[in-house]
Amino acid sequence: MADILDDESAMLRACELASCCEPVDRAFNVGAVLTSAAGEVLATGFSRELEGNTHAEECCFIKLEKEGRLAEARGGTMFSSMEPCSVRLSGKRPCTDRCLEAGVARVVLAIEEPANFVTCEGVARLRAGGLTVVRWEDERCAAMAAAANAHLAAEPAGTPAPAVAPASREAPAAGPDAAPGAAASAGTE
User: Fold this and answer.
1) CA pair distance 26, 143, nearest whole angstrom
2) Is 40 a catalytic residue?
């Protein structure tokens, strides 16, 4: 039987996985856990775990695809220690596109991607695609994600995403379709 994780356990596991990465000077160390809508762990991944300069979220999808189980991601949640990328210098498909294509319903992240290499618009792209994006409020996760990227000391190793109301854990909406009174989030979206 597959592991069933609550949100806190899945987020902590994603942040732990970030420390499994081999540090390189031109890449972040990220961990990810992909769960079904029921919370069943479908796959885990971390940066460069698989061949081909793979990202953490990408590893999750590759593993499911190889097993012929990618459809199980539909309606699920991607827990990531860092905001999924919206652009890749390698030219490979960004993780935001992979989440959207797989039909993931929700993305939970510990920190936003710093602008060390590119300007990431992952949160904005995911929201524009109809996904719920949540910044996990537990500072332990933000600290773990930042520590995994301490090798990139020239820039801060992660800017916490904007905090959200504890009652909803959903990041505030922005734009013309936002609910009245919804605040636009700050940061590197």
Assistant:
1) 20
2) no
